């Protein structure tokens, strides 16, 4: 059992909208750990494996996303999620497109 | 055989059904069994029990099938379709009380992670007006 926490700036144009939310949730579901995200350190912290809650967060561009996890793969989970956000959810090619 | 819950989209409009299915495919991917149907047998707006049965068949999974419907007849015809299923399938198909497009994407995302039919239904229904 370990714990990990990190924060990352959302640089994606539209923030944590529909497609990014689905990607983040799918990624989170691949880990055993409990994974939570929040818009600020004070919370509220929400379950990153809940697509409805992640989408309802509506985290915007240029806001910080706090990620924390606890469980046997906590560090890998936080690393993977932070990496996804840094990669603009692999939608960098869409920036500025139509 | 896929262990993931299948998703069925039933709309009065074939275009809406196909559009919602396209969103599921693009956002969630191809790992979740998916069926969709819309329109009556004459090609107009409406729903048909036969088409719904075919869509359930297409999305069939031993883990069960969650149906998303739009309005009135879509729900009653889906209920009728469920009643016409063979006994061993009846208890494994549920209708979600959720908006059809958003519910389909939410349900499919939940299914993708390997959740049970009850969890998939609950996730879709979390979206319902509070």
Cα radius of gyration of chain B in angstroms: 13 Å
The major beta sheet of chain A can be summarized as: 4 strands, antiparallel
Mass-distribution shape of chain A: globular
The pLDDT mean of chain A sits at 91
CATH-assigned fold name of chain B: Rossmann fold
CATH topology of chain A: Histidine-containing Protein, Chain: A
Q: Gap between N and C termini of chain B, in Å?
A: 37 Å
> What is the β-strand count of chain A?
4
Oligomeric grouping of the chains:
heterodimer
Range of helix content of chain B = 40-55%
Total number of domains of chain B: 1
Structural domains of chain A: how many: 1
Summarize the structure.
The complex is a heterodimer of chains A (98) and B (130). By secondary structure, chain A is of the alpha+beta class.
Description of the molecule:
The complex is a heterodimer of chains A (98) and B (130). Chain A is of the alpha+beta class. Chain A contains three helices and four strands. A four-stranded antiparallel beta sheet of chain A has the order 1-4-2-3, with helices on one face. In chain A, α1 packs antiparallel against α3. In chain B, strands 2-1-3-4 form a four-stranded parallel beta sheet, with helices on both faces. Chain B contains six helices and four strands; from the N terminus they run βαβαβααβαα. Chain B has one domain: Rossmann fold, CATH 3.40.50.510. With 130 residues, chain B is an alpha/beta fold. In chain B, α1 (14-28) links the parallel β1 (6-11) and β2. The model of chain B has no long low-confidence stretch (mean pLDDT 94). Chain B is 49% helix and 15% strand. Chain A binds chain B through residues 18-19, 22, 25-26, 29, 49-52, 55, and chain B through 26-28, 105-106, 109-110, 112-114, 123, 126-127.
């Amino acid at each position: 059992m370990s714990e990990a926490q990190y924060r990352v700036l959302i640089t994606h144009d539209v923030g944590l909208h529909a497609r990014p939310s689905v990607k983040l949730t799918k990624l989170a579901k691949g880990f055993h750990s409990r994974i939570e995200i929040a818009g600020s350190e004070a919370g509220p912290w929400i379950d990153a494996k809940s697509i409805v809650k992640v989408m309802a967060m509506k985290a915007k561009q240029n806001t910080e996303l706090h990620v924390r996890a606890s469980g046997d793969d906590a560090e890998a989970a936080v690393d993977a999620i932070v990496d996804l956000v840094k990669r603009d959810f692999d939608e960098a090619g869409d920036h500025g497109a139509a | 055989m896929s262990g993931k819950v299948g998703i069925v989209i039933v709309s009065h409009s074939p275009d809406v059904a196909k559009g919602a299915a396209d969103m599921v495919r693009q956002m969630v991917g191809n790992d979740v069994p998916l069926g969709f149907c819309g329109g009556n047998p004459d090609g107009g707006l409406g729903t048909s029990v036969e088409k719904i049965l075919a869509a359930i068949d297409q999305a069939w999974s031993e883990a069960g099938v969650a149906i998303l419907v739009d309005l009135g007849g879509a729900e009653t015809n889906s209920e009728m379709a469920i009643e016409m299923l063979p006994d061993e399938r009846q208890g494994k198909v549920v209708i979600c009380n959720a908006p059809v497009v958003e519910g389909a994407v939410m349900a499919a995302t939940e299914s993708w992670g390997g959740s049970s039919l009850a969890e998939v239904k609950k996730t879709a229904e979390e979206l319902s007006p509070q």
